[in-house]
Design brief:
heterodimer, A: 259 residues, alpha/beta, Rossmann fold, 10-stranded mixed beta sheet, 8 helices, 37% helix, B: 259 residues, mainly alpha, MetI-like fold, 0% strand, binds adenosine-5'-triphosphate, binds magnesium ion, ATP binding (chain A), ATP hydrolysis activity (chain A)
Chain lengths: 259, 259
Amino acid sequence: MLDVRGLKKVYEGSGRRVEAVRDLTFAVGAGELVCLVGPSGCGKTTLLKCVGGLLAPTGGEVLLEGRKVSGPPPGMAFVFQEYGRSLFPWMRVGENVGLPLRQKGLSRARRGELVRDALGSVGLADAVRAYPWQLSGGMQQRVAIARALAYEPRVLLMDEPFAAVDAQTRADLEDLVRGLWRERGITILFVTHDIDEAVYLGERVIVLSASPTVVREQLKVDLPVERDQLHTRVDPRFAELRTHVYEQIQAAKKGVVAS
Amino acid sequence: MRRALLRLVFAVALPALLVTVWWVASAGSTDVYWPPLRTIVEAFPDVWTAERLRGDVLPSALRLAGGYALAAVVGVALGTAIGSYRRVRAVCEPVLEFLRAVPPPVLVPVIMLFAGIGDTMKVTVIAAGCVWPVLLNTVEGVRAVDPVMAETARSYGITGAARLRNLVLRSASPQIFAGLRQALSIGIILMVISEMFAASNGLGFTIVQFQRGFAIPDMWTGILVLGLLGFLLSVVFQWVERRVLGWYHGLRASARRSP
Ligand SMILES: Nc1ncnc2c1ncn2[C@@H]1O[C@H](COP(=O)(O)OP(=O)(O)OP(=O)(O)O)[C@@H](O)[C@H]1O
Ligand SMILES: [Mg+2]
């Protein structure tokens, strides 16, 4: 479904040259939920923007269903790290969610239906008429997720979407994402720096090294598909996996070569 | 209800006080140039008959509306173009700074040279003076579009006219309105000045006529009419602004509550 081959991104500008991503190669299968973890500043956002066609890679390529990505492809939705700045404050929640659909050329009735559905599934059905700034941070992020869902993407890219919400909301949102993934069969690439979150959510975890960034390890999460906050997190296998990823990240920070 | 009443009292208190001071201070005045306010008020209905309103105030208002509308359209259009492209900006900026520094009334004799002394000249003068604050504020507003919002729009395929309408102009609207507000007061000044130079009707023309004919109380009534016109326009402007920028005031208020 999604192929990243030899991806390299160098930022040039104002006399500084930053090699954010050196050489990344991995694939995401159709309908898979993959989590990307890595130390802060290792280029996760950069990678995701390259995948989403928002940034042109310096080297290598990204293929979506065999076709090279050279701009934001239709059928792909992005949930940004800075949720507060990704909703338009001059539009009500409903309009925010509906705008990309209008752009797609859907009929008014169909748009209304999708918007209601998406907001309903994130538990914000009655916030349609509110402005984003009237909502709490967690609610805003849910609106951003609803916007992505209403778009009916085949691929969903999420960049640390829960980094700024409280623990309880976060747990709810995690379950929401897993639920939606199972219901709708979308392909999800989920970036986080939270190891527990990566293991809890993902079917597979890709661990990135510190900058200059390469793939350090890919790990299959062999936990049952049915997961819940209470039991999964105390599962001994969960503990093993998270310990393993934790060690990898620690080693990555120190720059030890993967064994 | 009580708060609304209180606000009304606050709004009216100072003007009422000033009028009272003027009334009392000028009460016994025998100075020809400084007639008692009472005389002015008494002259008012005789001078500003329906015919005069139609013959002088209406033409002035139409010139102002024409020049202001022209400035708004040109200012926003050019400002958006200049603000959107770095290259265009680099070329235009020095020229803009120069043109802005020219005091607008100086334009009157210059524009008279090629636009004659008719309505075209007056509308041109008003537009030429009003366009700068609109243009420069639009440039700033368009430049300041949040990069995360811009990327959001791009990732959802919101480009071209839809991007302009839903993102760029909306995001710049607070600055555009700040420019429009400055332009409004400049417009009134230029309306009067252009009519003082060369005209056969209009508010500025009438006031000068009264002054030349030593109809001093009548001249004062003209000044009162100008003041009232300015006040009325500012009320209308505020009403429009509150409707269009409701989101912005709400956003600011919510940002103040939780920084
Ligand atoms: N627009 C840019 N111009 C120059 N350098 C940049 C730019 N964006 C990111 N970088 C640099 O690239 C590197 C990777 O940044 P990136 O935002 O992709 O990291 P990240 O893994 O998402 O970090 P975090 O976990 O904090 O979100 C950093 O060193 C950063 O300074
Ligand atoms: Mg990031």
